[in-house]
Amino acid sequence: MAPEVLLGEPLNEKLDVYSFAYVFWEILTRKELFLEYNDKEIFTEDIARKGKRPPIDDIDPILVKILNMCWDENPDNRPLFEQIIPMLEKALIQIYLPTDLCAIAQSFWLMNYKYQPRAPFEEFALKLIRALKKVMVKTSIQLEMRGLRALLEEEVGEEKVVTIERFSAFLTWFGPLKTDTHTILEQMLTVLKSPWFFGKMSSEQSERQIASCLSKPRGLFLVRLNMGTHIPTNKSPFTITRVVDNTGKVIHSRVYTSKKNGLIIEFKSEKDKNNNIIIEGASITDLIRKLKHHQELLLADCCPGWPFGDIFNPPSPPFPYEELKPEDYT
Q1: Of the CATH numbers 1.10.3470, 4.10.410, 1.10.10, 1.10.238, which one belongs to the domain with range 105-191?
Q2: What whole-number percentage of the chain has pLDDT above 90?
Q3: Residues 6+ apart with CB under 8 A from 321
Q4: Average pLDDT over residues 176-186
Q5: What is the pLDDT of residue 297?
Q6: How many CB atoms neighbour CB 75 within 10 A?
Q7: What is the CA radius of gyration of the chain?
Q8: In the chain, which residue ranges form alpha helices assigned H by DSSP?
Q9: Start-to-end CA span in the chain (Å)
Q10: Where are the alpha helices (DSSP H) in 79-120?
Q11: 174, 188 contact by CB (below 8 A)
């Protein structure tokens, strides 16, 4: 309820803009508003006269700016909805595809999909491959399509799409679209080929995967993607699940992004409890290589069950006469 409503002042359409801001806050935070109030007089004093607003500490600064404009106590300072919509569209791109994540990803999305939050998967994947490859080879494209499908494709209703949020996560997992030495497609395939990589997997699924192994020696491990459920993907893109002793005890260690645009992980040192092992790498493959080199039993053996065999060795099409019945041969 806008301050002008609470105070009995003249009203216009801007009171709905104020209410929108609070609904938007609830969507962003998944919290309920003003649970501390049960007295209307105190509520009116704090909100309408003192200008108290909900906490915004965990909200992206770009969206905080929009919230502050929309719940301004002065209706004249609030934007119209026709002004808010382009603000939100621009915020979508700025938040998920910032230039410090990838210099060209924002322009790629805007050129092809403007401010849309999602794109059809097949179309998106082909446009991405065409934008990054100099030579289009059919067998290579098929391989890259299968890789992109395994990591980017989502279902919205009956449609298979790529969301801007997943595209942003993809850039965090495998780096910018293009560097002087490689493209994100090459980096993606390198990781997918690694027998320790298990892709989109929850902690419970990873524990079940390890539990299914006949032998669970110390150092058995797998690497899985962080899908942003608890910690944002841009802060922690990967998790290493590993067996830490001969009893089969499993722990999950997060891999974080470092200030040097690489990855960093920290383990407790078994030899010196007062010091931790800190390893940095330019990519997840570089980080795993350094970890294996640092201490033999830290990451000793890849967990069996690597799930991406069909990407690199797809099953052969069925023999054309398999479906024929005996009478069909006459």
Answers
A1: 1.10.238
A2: 80
A3: none
A4: 93
A5: 77
A6: 18
A7: 26
A8: 3-6, 14-29, 40-44, 61-70, 81-96, 105-113, 121-132, 138-152, 164-174, 184-193, 203-211, 284-294, 309-312
A9: 81
A10: 81-96, 105-113
A11: yes
